[in-house]
Prior knowledge:
Radius of gyration: 23 Å
Number of helices: 1
Order of helices and strands: EEEEEEEEEEEEEEEEHEEEEE
Largest sheet: 6 strands, antiparallel
Number of domains: 3
Number of strands: 21
Strand content: over 45%
Amino acid sequence: MAVTDPVRVYGLDVNGDPxxxxxxxxxxxxxxxxxxxTALGAIYMLRRLNIVTLASPIAVGDRTVDLGAGHGFSAGDxxxxxxxxxxxxxxxLCVGVAVNTITxxxxxxxxxxxxxxxxxxxxxxxxxxxxxxxxxxxxVPRGDRAWDIVSCVFSIEGVAAMDTGLxxxxxxxxxxxxxxxxxxxxxxxxxxxxxxxxxxxxxxxxVEYHDRAGGGGTYGFVARFRFGGQSNWGAVPRIDGTKGxxxxxxxxxxxxNLTLMRMGVQAHQVD
Length: 271
């Protein structure tokens, strides 16, 4: 009896579900790539400024949050809350403050109880003066979750044109901007450090330089590190909250002459 090429072979995947493979006479096996279907999200790297207390519970769909006195919020700060009982998270930009009530740009997707919730005020702005001591921005998964970091995007704006020898529109940095992973034991795995725009590209980022629109506005620079996919780095940094791991950006230099600097992260949850 003739054997067809390819031959269909049946097996089980990691979840115990049946899967079919196609094996050729030369021993090759056809593979089919499938996108992840786990929870995903995009968030800015944050530097926590202070802890705040909820004065009333948060309901699904709320955009306003009542806080205890002394919260310190102003428009442009970042609000974050986690309910330690349910594990639900919510973070967003503060767009208004009325005494002890703040307004967030996006509505809450979940409910948060006062007794079990932990809330904080943070900043996403990296155009800061860190010449007096390092400033650390972090991405921290909740304690029972791990995230795979698919990509990181640095965005910089300035008042002058930018090139490879500058950092944004400023002089090349003495110490540089460091991207690293904090391990469970408190040690670090450094991913890259950039002293100028050219370093971002040399170290694996896809970069873009933007002119001012119509002669107005600001100049811009964007550096995208794409980790996932064989055409990119081929591996993703895994940040495991069960081990207390963090993704960190560390600023050592004076960057407050930049108009803007932020870093966004795109990640998916590991199930």
